Amino acid sequence: MIGIFDSGIGGLTVARAVKQTLPRRDIIYLGDTARTPYGNKTAKTVVKYALENTEFLMRQGAKIIVMACNTASSVAFEAVREEFDAPVFEVISPAVEAALEASRKGAIGVIGTRATIRSGVYEKMIKARLPDAGVHSAPCPLLVPLVEEGWLKKPETAMIVKKYLHPLKTRQIDTLILGCTHYPVLKDLIQRKIGKRVRVIDSAESSARSIARTLEENPDLAARLGKNGTLRVCVSDLTEQFKKTARGLLKMNVSFETV
Ligand code: DGL
């Protein structure tokens, strides 16, 4: 089984991309809805939650772990990798790879939660590969609650996205990384507001491709994963809003387990 976790609903964009890329693989998803959001918590707290989430997924039989949360990936990746004897994937390096490939002049924008942007992880990774890159980051804390509320087509959301993107637009970025698992849901709107010449990088799709590549390169690992195409969605607190948004995101009639 592929174990995927997020602070809540956003990581389902990664689960959806993994399902599309690897339709026959068994997936277990954990949304830590009782403790969401992670994006405005301290690194210490996010590390603790990430370790607990991973332990749960491993107990359920996950053989690889996907941290489908940029905030957890930014601050807890090393801790999770050291603690557990399983391959652990984060969602940051695949997005960085895709951005470096897409960018023509190395002017790269990154949007994410406060904790992700504060960690500086995207900037460090991009500069390690391309020291001359201009990296311009902007925290967008209001976008997570707007997605959770399903305010995808509201004019207020469009206004907020425009305001957040304005400083990146003036820097003339040519590539924009969606550094939060909620943002792919707003991808069309973000693309409209940043302009069609900017390549928008969705970390969900690039992460799914990187997992698929790793499995191709490691047949032993691939052989340990189930192949019935099942998807279990577990949450630490189940609300009607979660069910509605999750079904809309997955475009599947999944059932949910409270754990
Ligand atoms: N999943 C988080 C991320 O990708 C966003 C939601 C949260 O703040 O917990 O950063």
From the alpha-carbon coordinates, what is the Rg to the nearest angstrom? 17 Å
Strand content: 15-25%
| CATH architecture name of the largest domain | 3-Layer(aba) Sandwich
The number of E-state strands comes to: 10
How many separate helices?
A: 12
Oligomer: single chain
Task: Pick out the low-confidence regions.
Answer: none
Bound molecules: D-glutamic acid
Q: Note the gap between the termini.
A: 18 Å
Largest sheet: 6 strands, parallel
In the CATH hierarchy, the third-tier topology of the largest domain is known as Rossmann fold
Average of the residue pLDDT scores: 95
* Helix/strand structural class: alpha/beta
Structural domain count: 2
Shape: globular
CATH class of the largest domain: Alpha Beta
Strand order across the largest sheet: 4-3-1-2-9-10
SSE succession: EHEHEHEHEHHEHHEHEHHEHE
Protein topology:
Layout: E1 2-6, H1 12-21, E2 27-31, H2 43-59, E3 64-67, H3 70-83, E4 88-90, H4 92-102, E5 107-112, H5 114-119, H6 121-129, E6 134-139, H7 143-148, H8 155-170, E7 175-179, H9 187-194, E8 199-202, H10 203-217, H11 219-223, E9 231-235, H12 240-250, E10 256-258
Helix pairs in contact: 1-10, 2-3, 4-6, 4-10, 8-9
The chain binds D-glutamic acid.
Structural commentary:
The protein is of the alpha/beta class. The chain folds into two domains: 2-90 and 205-258, Rossmann fold (3-Layer(aba) Sandwich); 92-203, Rossmann fold (3-Layer(aba) Sandwich). 49% of the residues lie in helices and 18% in strands. It has helices spanning 12-21, 43-59, 70-83, 92-102, 114-119, 121-129, 143-148, 155-170, 187-194, 203-217, 219-223, 240-250; strands spanning 2-6, 27-31, 64-67, 88-90, 107-112, 134-139, 175-179, 199-202, 231-235, 256-258. A six-stranded parallel beta sheet has the order 4-3-1-2-9-10, with helices on both faces. Strands 6-5-7-8 form a four-stranded parallel beta sheet, sandwiched between helices. β1 (2-6), α1 and β2 (27-31) form a beta-alpha-beta unit. α1 (12-21) packs across α10 and α8 packs across α9. The longest helix is centred in the first third of the chain and has 17 residues, at 43-59. The radius of gyration is 17 Å and the shape is globular. The model has no long low-confidence stretch (mean pLDDT 95). It binds D-glutamic acid (DGL). D-glutamic acid binds next to α3. Residues 6-8, 10, 36-39, 69-71, 112-113, 116, 144, 180-182 line the site of D-glutamic acid.
